[in-house]
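Write out this protein's structure.
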Amino acid sequence: MSAFSLTGKTAMVTGSNSGIGQAIAWAMGRAGARVICAARSDCSETLAGLSDARWLQIDLGNPMAAVDAFGDEPVDILVNNAGTIRRADAIDLTEDDWDAVMDLNLKSAFFTTQAFARSIFARQGSGAVVNIASLLSFQGGIRVASYTAAKHGLAGVTKLLANEWAARGINVNAIAPGYIETANTRALRADPDRSRDILARIPAGRWGKPDDIAEAAVFLASPAAAYIHGAILPVDGGWLAR
């Protein structure tokens, strides 16, 4: 069997109703995994592209929503993709802007991962966690204070959990996507000046595609990445190298 195969594994992908999460769910399925699409919004389109999958309707805006989500069937792979963003000058950012982003992007990711790990340890198994971080895990950005804080935090938590769990059979890593063609970047791509400036900074000379992230997620979840722990992998067309 290929070291990149996920045959016989069950993968839970949060926020998999569209965009990067949907692409990851499909890639996990192509690699042989059974997929649980964990999302608040309808995942019927994602499920249509999978042969062995189900939708777990769950609102991860509640950070503790997934505490009991791992009791129905063993889950071997967890991808924390669900997220949100609020844009405002730092001087104007509200407490609601802060809490909504931190609760979903960081607090929910941590407690979902904690519940996943408890289920793994209870059955004395092994598993893999792939967190979807951001270029703003490394950079500051502008007008996204809560998002930047959450993504810095997610990178730190990825390393901490790797330190604690690497010897206990769980690989914990993260992907930091660059500028990807999704609904979140539609306005940027439609703005000729912003799009031109962004592309000028990307050595690859193109916007990323959701599949660029998805295939990296399959790699980090697979046996091929067995000795990778605590990595924050930029998939950014070279943006950070510029």
